[in-house]
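Worked example (supplementary).
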Amino acid sequence: MDLTRSPLALPFPDMPQIAGAVPRVARARYKDWDRCDLTFVELAEGTSVAGVFTRNVCCSTEVEMGREQVKAGHARALVVNAGNSNAFTGYRGREAVEQIMAQVADGLGCAHNEVFVSSTGVIGVPLPKDKARDGVAAVMQAEPCSWQDAAATIATTDTFDKGASASAMLGETRVELVGIVKGSGMIAPDMATMLGYIFTDAAVAPAFLQECLSRANAGTFNCITVDSDTSTSDTVLAFATGKAGNALLDGWDAPGADAFFAAVQDVCRQLAHLVVRDGEGASKFIEVRVSGAASDESARRVALAIANSPLVKTAIAGGDANWGRVVMAVGKAGEPADRDRLSIGFGGTWAARDGQPVPDYDEAPVAEHLAGQEIRVEADLAMGDGSATVWTCDLTHGYIDINADYRS
Amino acid sequence: MDLTRSPLALPFPDMPQIAGAVPRVARARYKDWDRCDLTFVELAEGTSVAGVFTRNVCCSTEVEMGREQVKAGHARALVVNAGNSNAFTGYRGREAVEQIMAQVADGLGCAHNEVFVSSTGVIGVPLPKDKARDGVAAVMQAEPCSWQDAAATIATTDTFDKGASASAMLGETRVELVGIVKGSGMIAPDMATMLGYIFTDAAVAPAFLQECLSRANAGTFNCITVDSDTSTSDTVLAFATGKAGNALLDGWDAPGADAFFAAVQDVCRQLAHLVVRDGEGASKFIEVRVSGAASDESARRVALAIANSPLVKTAIAGGDANWGRVVMAVGKAGEPADRDRLSIGFGGTWAARDGQPVPDYDEAPVAEHLAGQEIRVEADLAMGDGSATVWTCDLTHGYIDINADYRS
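After joint prediction of all chains, the assembly is encoded as:
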C-alpha cells in the first residue's frame, strides 16, 4: 500500500558521526521489495550497552535474548532486520537469530552475546536463514552509510525517517549522542512496535548507562501511545563506545553525569515524539497534561486513559472541544478523583472547572487551538501533587485505512 | 448527522405487556428535534427494584442517586430523559433530577425515592428544568405505548430499536420478562453509555432480584465492549411488579428460582448483544472465546484485551486473518500466558498452535469465515481451566465518521 508522509513529519536533522559506531545497510530481501532492509552497526571494542524491552508476554526471541545479553554489558555489533519480526516462530525463529549472532561474531572476532539482533515486521513467519546469511555477508562488506540511511533501513510502515541528536560536556570533554527510531502503529507503554537505538562516543559504565536509559525511558518512550496496543518486539538499546576520551562515567557523582543524563533524556524525548508524529493516520500531535493527582503514577494512568480513549482521539480529529469525553476518560481510569473538583482545559483555556462548565465559557479560542496540529489537553484533579505528561495522536480514517489492509 | 441503520440490526421482537408496568412517551424537546425524548414507566405498588451502575468515578447525579435508591428496594416509576445526560453539571443537575422525582411522586402519591431517573446524551449541560417539568406533565397524561416506542424514545445515537423478552415457569405460574436497552458508543465494562431496563410481572424479593441481576450482568453486559470507553451514566435496572401471582421468589431454594435467573440472564444476553450489534460503525459481530487461562477472571481480561485491541478490530474489519495481532493482544493483557503454548484460531480453524503457525495452515476456510458478519476468535492458553467469552464489533471508518463529528 502507498503510505502518505505524515503531515506531522519533521525533517531529518544533521547528525554527527559517532567515533566507534559505524552503520552500514544492505538488501536481505526479507520481503519482495526494492529497498535496504538489513542494518548493521559495528561497535568499537569496549562498547557498553543498556536496554529496555517490551513487557508483552508473547515477546520475540530477539527480545528474550537481548534482555539476557544486556546483563553482560558489552556490545560489538547491532543487526536489525526489517520486514519480518520473527515473533511467534518457535525454535526456528531462535535458530535464525543464533545464526546471525554466530556469523557476525565470527567476522568480528567477538563473543556471540556481544551481537545484538532486532527484527520488525510480520509476526509468525520464521526469519529465512538463507536470506539472513546472504544479507549479513553483504552488509559486513558494505560501505559505511549515514544515520539517515540506517534510520530508513530499520523502518517498516514509517512514513518518514526519524533521528535525533544531543551533546553534553563531561568535564572538559564534549560527547555526542545520536539516536534513530522506527515505529508508528502498535505503540503503547510499555514499549511498542518501536525499535530505538542510541549511540554515544562517551565512556560510560554499563550499569550507569542502564540507569540513565531506564530513567529516561520512564518519562519518554513509556509516556507515548498511539493505539494502546503493545508489540512483541519493542526494544531500545543504548551503546556507548568510549571513544570521546572522557573519564569513565560510572555514577551520579562523576563530572558531567547530570549533563549526560539530560542528553540521553533529550534524545529519548525527541525520538518518542517522532514516533507519535508518525502515528498511523495521525493528523494532530496531542500532549495530555494531568496535574493535581494523588501521585505521579496516578497522574500517568489518568493521562494514558485520556490519551488512549478512542472517543477523545476522534473528537480531537474532528476539532471538537468535547471536554465531556475527557471527563469520561478521567472517570474510567479508576484512579482517585472527585467529579466535583475536576477541571478540564484545552491549550490553556479551561472549559470546565470544579465539576461544572465554566460560566460564560468562550469556545472560540479553544476551537482555534483545536484547529491546529499541536494540541494540548489539560486535566486538573485537585486531589494532590501528582502530575504527568503523555503524548499521543488523534484517531482518523487513516488509521483504519492502514490497519484494515496491511498485514503487519 | 444521518445515522445509517447498522447492517447487524435485528428486527424488534414481539413483546408481551407486563401487568403493573405501563410505558408512556412524550416530547420534552431536550434537543431541537422532532421525536419523543421522555419515557415514563408507571409501576404497580409493591414493585421490587434492583440495579447495576457504571463504575466511572465521574458518574452522573442520576447514577449516584439510583445507587442509593435501589438499596430501599422499591419503585413506582422510571423516567428516562434522552438528549442530555445531565452528567458533570454540579448542583444544577441535581436540582433537575430532584424536581422530576418530586413531580412524579406527587402525581402518583408515592415516596420521592421510589422514582428512578436516568438521562443520556450530551455531557456538561444541566438538564433544563422547565422542559423537564412540561415533559413530565405531558407524559403522565399520555396514552400507554408499546415497548418498541419506549425503546425508540430512550435511544440517542442508536440506529435501531432494541428489545428482548423471555418467560419462566415458577411452579405453576408463568412469568414474563421484557427488556429494552439503548447504547452504541462509549461501551465497555464495567457498564457503558448504556441504559437497560428489565420489567417482569414476577413477584421477587428485592435482594434476590439484585442477586439475579448482578450475576447475569457479570456474564453479559460486563462482557461487551465497543471502544473500551466507559460512560458516566450507565445503568441497568430490573423491576418486578409481582402481578403474575407466583409465590414470592426470595432465594435460590424457592420453586422456579433457577428458571427465573435463566430468564433474566437470557434477556440480559440478548440486550447486551443488541448493543454490540449497534456498535458505532460496526460491520461485524465478534465473539472472543478464551480457554485454558489461569482462571475465569484471567480469561476475561485476556478476552477483553483482544476485544479492545484496535489492531485486532481493524484487521477483522478488513477480513484479515491476522492472528499475530491476537498474539500481541494476549501478550499485552498482563495475565499468565506462555508464548510457546498459545494457540489462536478463527471460526473453529486453528491458525497457530503451541506457539507456532500450524504447518500447512490453509487460510481459505478462515478467510471465508472472516468474510461473514458473525466472527469467532479463539485463543487457548494451555495454562489452566479458566475460560470466558466476550463480545465486540469491528473498528471501521463508520466509527470515525460518527465520533469525529457528533458532540455526544
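Two points are worth noting when inspecting this output. The longest strand of chain A covers residues 38-53. Confidence is low (pLDDT under 50) at residues 187-192 of chain A.
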